[in-house]
Amino acid sequence: MVPRLIDFLKASQVTSLFTSLTQGGVAPQQSEAAMSSLMDAWLLLQDFEGNGERNRVLYVLKARGMAHSNQIREFLISNHGIDVVDAYIGPSSVLTGSARAAQNALEKAAVLTNRQEAARLKRKRTAIERQISGLRADYEIEAGELRRIAEQVGTQTLMLSTEKAASGLLRQADTQTPVHRPTKKAKGETRMKAKPVKASPRAVAPWQLRLYVMGQRPKSVLALANLRKFCRAHLKGRYRITVVDLLKHPHLAKGNQILAIPTVERRLPKPMRTIIGSLSATDSLLVGLNLRATD
Questions:
Q1: pLDDT tens for residues 157-182?
Q2: Which residue range is the domain that position 62 belongs to?
Q3: Is residue 169 in a domain?
Q4: Are residues 240 and 279 located together in one domain of the fold?
Q5: Mean pLDDT (the chain, rounded)
Q6: How many other C-beta atoms are found inside a 10 Å radius of the C-beta of residue 95?
Q7: Residue 228 CB coordination number (10 Å)
Q8: Alpha helical stretches, state H, 175-290
Q9: Mind giving me the DSSP string for 147-200?
């Protein structure tokens, strides 16, 4: 009779709800009337005992042709009806009743503790930032004081130098120039007046050399050492070397048409000559500078 009624309701497209009370000691997945195969959806309600209490739970045993959750949900019967509580999975099983409430309280306490710790760290960071700002202000004040002291020391040094120079001039003005009286010439003594020796223009005019380098790179350091060694050997006392660092003055490379580093220019005497390389070969340097080995 019941199967025919179920077939009639399905044919009439009537949604029906059937309940089946399971006796104690019988598996809840078995129906007493053996009609589970005729049902499209099957909700199973049972009591869950644990932690000294009993709680009501439900879950979907089957739902033909529909995707459904396999979680066991706790439901509460209150004045507002039936409330299905969200599934709460504990370390080993589903938590229900007071165990679920206690775990929720623990998690809320942990969240509150984390928020309080974050607020404490934020306050600590704000205090540290204020300390850093204060230290920066103190540093700026001390730096300004040091600059002021340095300027005062420079001014005092300049004044002392000026006073020393003025005192020297006054002392020289007070000294008398000794008068050289001519001595009498003995008979038969011949005196010759020495002619002043004029220095050759080449000995007086210095050689002006300009070396273009690129910081403290090995080739630049080697070129400077070789150039100084060469000048001490062949231009002793009559040369001047100017070192130009293109890292600090890059605009000079384009203005003077410097294509390689290191490069040395002979600015004086004219005409100007240019030599590129580490300046290790003495013969090549003599020829490049148009300087004889005997100079």
A1: 767 766 666 665 555 544 444 444 55
A2: 1-12+38-87
A3: no
A4: yes
A5: 77
A6: 21
A7: 15
A8: 201-204, 218-234, 251-255, 282-288
A9: HHHHHHHHHHHHHHHHHHHHHHHHHHHHSPPPP-PPPPPPTT----PPPPPPPP
Please check whether residue 176 is in contact with residue 223, taking contact to mean a CB–CB distance below 8 angstroms. Answer: no
Q: CB neighbours of 17 closer than 8 A, spacing ≥ 6?
A: none
- Residue 20: inside a domain: no
Does residue 192 fall inside a structural domain?
no
Average pLDDT over residues 122-131: 92
With contact defined as beta carbons under 8 Å apart, do 226 and 286 qualify? no
pLDDT in tens, 202-240: 444 588 999 999 888 888 899 899 999 999 888 888 899
Here the CATH number for the domain that contains residue 230 is 3.40.30.10
Q: What is the pLDDT of residues 3-33, one digit of tens each?
A: 788 788 888 888 888 877 776 655 666 665 5
Instruction: Out of 111, 127, 151, pick the residue that ends a domain.
Output: 151
Q: Are 212 and 284 found together in one domain?
A: yes
Measured CA to CA, the distance from residue 163 to residue 170 in angstroms comes to: 10
Q: What predicted TM-score, i.e. pTM, was given to this entire model? A: 0.32
Tokens of residue 55, six digits: 């709680």
Query: Could you tell me if 240 and 217 lie in one domain?
Result: yes
78: its two tokens: 């209150």
Last residue of a domain, one of 132, 151, 170: 151
